[in-house]
Backbone:
């Protein structure tokens, strides 16, 4: 890992208030505070494996923003270019958990600090030294100015020869399928790597067939496409043709939230280390599985030693 240039990740982090499984919050209960964000999840995953990760965002000049920044610094993520706004708050979400079912999620992100970001928010010096620019489809969905900022950054990074990794990470509570398809199709044309779930593939291409999804994106300009097929694993399409990696069978899943981001951190870290795509897929699946064994979006992301121990116990050697 001699190349010390950082992976630059741009996006939102929200303060999260979790209700307990045994008592809905509308009946009165204690709430557990943490934070979450697709890009911060990936950043923490990379940092725990020893890679340089820099997060670009805007948080409010409030307690929530302080908690997020302090936590990321503690994880070794570079937050030196994060902007702090005195005009808008840090975003928040509340999860009302119910035993045996998916949690209800309530967002408080309209008018948040990051939603006001635009093309002039981050100077070129904040990302120009990047080895990889990583974004998700959440950021351009936050506001029109965030959409403009995301398109601007991807265009500039691509023109500068920086690899661009994009996870569509479609959120229907933020924008419609038509809006997402129009924006993401344009962004993916400039992407080095696309990490696409089957549902997102249907939204983007109208097909749930991994090969059809990949061909549409590759024909559009994306250089490498990875289609995530949930517990079944993932399939790579690109310069090496087609490669597949089965998912890790787990006896029990504690919390699947964050597994896709853990997968992304695994694949990206492997590629940063010069590993082949097959090994990268295998690592991504291992990272996703490990995260499913712990409650929380990022808390269960492994260190390198923990990753190696998990793979050694299952396969006899690090894949």
Residues:
């Amino acid at each position: 890992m001699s190349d010390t240039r950082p992976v630059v990740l741009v996006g939102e982090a929200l303060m999260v208030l979790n209700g307990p499984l045994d008592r809905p919050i509308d009946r009165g209960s204690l709430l557990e505070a943490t934070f979450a964000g697709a890009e911060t999840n990936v950043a923490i995953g990379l940092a725990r494996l020893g890679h340089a990760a820099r997060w670009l965002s805007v948080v409010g000049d409030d307690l929530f923003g302080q908690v997020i920044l302090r936590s990321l610094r503690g994880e070794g993520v570079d937050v030196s270019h994060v902007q702090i706004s005195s005009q808008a708050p840090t975003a928040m979400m509340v999860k009302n958990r119910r035993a045996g079912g998916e949690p209800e999620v309530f967002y408080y992100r309209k008018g948040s600090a990051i939603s006001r970001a635009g093309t002039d928010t981050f100077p070129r010096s904040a990302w120009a030294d990047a080895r990889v620019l990583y974004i998700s489809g959440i950021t351009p969905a936050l506001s029109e100015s965030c959409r403009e900022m995301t398109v601007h950054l991807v265009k500039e990074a691509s023109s500068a020869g920086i690899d661009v990794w994009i996870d569509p990470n479609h959120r229907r509570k933020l924008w419609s399928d038509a809006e997402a398809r129009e924006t993401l199709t344009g962004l993916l044309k400039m992407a080095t790597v696309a990490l696409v779930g089957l549902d997102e593939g249907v939204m983007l291409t109208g097909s749930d067939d991994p090969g059809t999804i990949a061909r549409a994106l590759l024909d559009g300009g994306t250089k490498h496409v990875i289609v995530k097929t949930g517990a079944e694993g993932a399939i790579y399409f690109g310069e090496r043709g087609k490669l597949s990696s089965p998912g890790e069978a787990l006896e029990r899943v504690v919390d699947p939230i964050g597994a896709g981001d853990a997968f992304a951190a695994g694949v990206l870290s492997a590629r940063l280390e010069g590993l082949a795509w097959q090994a990268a897929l295998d690592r991504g699946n291992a990272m996703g599985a490990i995260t499913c064994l712990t409650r929380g979006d990022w808390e269960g992301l492994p260190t390198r030693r923990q990753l190696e121990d998990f793979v050694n116990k299952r396969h006899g050697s690090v894949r």
Notes: The longest helix spans residues 144-159. The chain has a mean pLDDT of 93.
